[in-house]
Write a structure and sequence with these properties.
The protein has 574 residues and is mostly beta strands. It is 7% helix and 44% strand. The longest helix is centred in the first third of the chain and has 21 residues. The N and C termini lie far apart (66 Å).
């Protein structure tokens, strides 16, 4: 029986009592292993240090409010002074807003929703006995080689691992090239949501990346799932959800702040926006995660886009998507937010299998979604005519159906990419109407065997010093795409001992994609991440994960680089 048949309630009723972490010792090496205790109830106790850290995360926002309030005071004071006959013009000034503490919120490992019945026969048990999970975090130093104070904490605030102690002073950068170092933490198993945080240094936000990976070789949630832990926000779009028979989509919304968050969900399907009772006014208490089974809000939707908006505290949202075809597992993946609505969406790391095997599999009952595809959502009321292009290792590849699809306003549509030769691709989609997009990747061509799936969300073009955390073990690839022009990509390994290795440069011509296999070690140390930069024309990238000899697959888009001190325009006048 599918998960949707077993549990179609709108919200998970699972409220677990928080478990405090048993380890709070320093963790800077790859070998450190700790368990983050579950912290899901609103009553979770939080340490004073975590409260100050969370408070630091919103320092920039509060500073902006103070500045704007001061501006408002200036307006009031000016209005009481008689205006000269010729009027007065006041220049718009730029006010500095200091960088705040960097945060990355990691969801809990994949789990079965409430109501699942465990069978007595191990061969047909929906519960995995081989599931493993791990959190890998990397914090980059400033150009002088000083690593900012950083740590891993449970969502409720209890310390799990110290990545780096806060420096007593911050030496200024020396002349010459930067000397980079890193703080690294590896925690396995992870049992609940966690928060990785790093202090700002010299009005520059810390460069931070964390990756949560899940793997299982048995059970209903067999497969590989991974996601970059994300900074909290108040607006996010998630594509790729499926609540049809045999498909389970669980939305997890985590609030790592000290302010309650009120979350409203907007759901879009094949026929338009879905008005679902219970999708608005969802309260997420500080230090907790709220789980919603999307089948209870939008049942039977094979292509579902979710718009998550919050007021009050910022939140981090992911969807745990899994597929079960009869008793055969069809894969598991985390759906992460991609780029917001735009006229251009680009996805890299779209690895396509042999088209003949995919076509044969898709013809079997229940396997229509076991093909590579592009999902497109148009949030506005205007129809979008979307032009889709594929770029592989040897240039552009034509899409059999022409690559043009019309999507009605307020709906979600899917463009299958079957018939495309096997290879790794970058997908470029454009329209004169704003839209969203995400690409589905599938593995496995035999109906009697387990298959897996992944989703590559759209991402922003690469710039300078993006940090990518990678899991330990398995196959790892960096996929880079240059839709047009010419670009240069450089990537440097970050090892578990905190060293940043020599960068490798890759010159790429326009209209191509490069797939680079990554080693497990650099020198004698395990690789924990990469520092990626790009120059020239727009370059896009993703991390592609797999397991040797298995159909497991997961794709993670490369996140934006850290931001430094920003300026807010302050206008004084009337």
């Amino acid at each position: 029986m599918s998960e949707d048949q077993k549990n179609v309630s709108g919200e998970s009723t699972e409220d677990q009592e928080p478990k405090k972490s048993r380890s709070a010792s320093s963790s800077r090496s790859a070998g450190s292993s700790r368990s983050a205790g579950s912290s899901r109830s609103a009553g979770s106790s939080r340490s004073s240090s975590s409260r100050s850290s969370n408070r630091g995360a919103i320092t920039g926002v509060l500073s902006a409010v103070v500045i704007l309030a001061a501006g408002g005071g200036a307006v009031a004071a000016t209005s009481m002074v008689p205006e000269p006959s010729g009027g007065t013009s006041v220049d718009i000034r730029q006010a500095d807003v200091p960088a705040g503490r960097a945060l990355a919120v990691c969801p809990e490992p994949a789990r079965l929703v409430n109501g699942t019945v465990v069978g007595t026969d191990a061969d047909f048990s929906p519960v995995s006995t081989t599931a493993t999970s791990a959190l890998n975090a990397v914090v980059l130093s400033n150009p002088a080689g000083t690593v900012p104070g950083s740590s891993v904490a449970a969502l409720g605030g209890d310390l799990v691992a110290r990545i780096a102690e806060a420096p007593s002073s911050t030496p200024p950068p020396t002349a010459g090239p930067p000397v980079l170092a890193a703080g690294v933490a590896s925690i396995s198993p992870l049992t609940s949501p966690a928060v990785v945080g790093a202090d700002a240094m010299g009005n520059e936000q810390a460069s931070l990346a964390a990756n949560l990976s899940y793997s299982a070789t048995d059970g209903d949630l067999r497969g590989l799932a991974a996601t970059q832990c994300q900074p909290p926000g108040n607006d996010a779009w998630l594509l790729g959800a499926n609540t049809a028979v045999g498909r389970t989509a669980v939305l997890n919304v985590s609030n790592a702040s000290e302010t309650p968050a009120t979350v409203n969900l907007e759901l879009y399907g094949y026929e338009g926006q879905i008005q679902a009772p219970g999708a608005r006014g969802l309260l997420v208490a500080p230090g907790t995660t709220r789980s919603v089974n999307l089948a209870g809000l939008a049942p039977g939707e094979s292509q579902l886009a979710v718009h998550v908006r919050s007021t009050g505290g910022p939140v981090a949202a992911t969807i745990q998507q899994s597929v079960l075809r009869g008793i055969a597992p069809g894969g598991v993946e985390y759906l992460s937010p991609g780029a917001g609505p735009s006229n251009l969406q680009v996805m890299s790391g779209v690895d396509i299998q042999d088209p003949s095997g995919v076509k044969t599999l898709a013809a079997k009952p229940g396997f229509a979604d076991a093909v590579p595809a592009l999902q497109i959502a148009v949030p506005g009321s205007t129809d979008a005519v979307v032009q889709v292009s594929l770029y592989g290792a040897n240039g552009e590849r034509k899409i059999p159906n022409g690559g043009v699809v019309t999507v009605k306003g307020g709906t979600v549509a899917t463009l299958n990419l079957d018939g495309v030769p096997a290879g790794s691709y970058t997908v470029r989609a454009s329209s004169d109407v704003s839209f969203l997009a995400s690409a589905r990747v599938t593995r496995g061509t035999k109906a009697e065997d387990a298959t897996d799936l992944a989703w590559s969300p759209s991402s922003a073009r690469l710039g300078s010093q993006h940090l990518v955390a990678v899991p330990r073990g398995g196959q790892k690839f960096l996929s880079f795409g240059v839709p047009e022009g010419r670009g240069t990509v450089s990537y440097a390994p970050v090892t578990a001992d905190g060293k940043v290795g020599k960068s490798v440069d890759v010159d790429m011509s326009g209209g191509t994609t490069s797939m680079i296999e990554l080693p497990e070690k650099s020198g004698n140390s395990v690789v924990a991440g990469y520092v990626v930069s790009a120059s020239g024309d727009p370059v896009y990238g993703a991390l592609v994960l797999g397991k040797q000899g298995r159909t497991d697959v997961s794709v993670v888009a490369i996140q934006d680089a850290a931001s430094g001190l920003q300026k807010v325009p302050v206008s004084v006048g009337y």
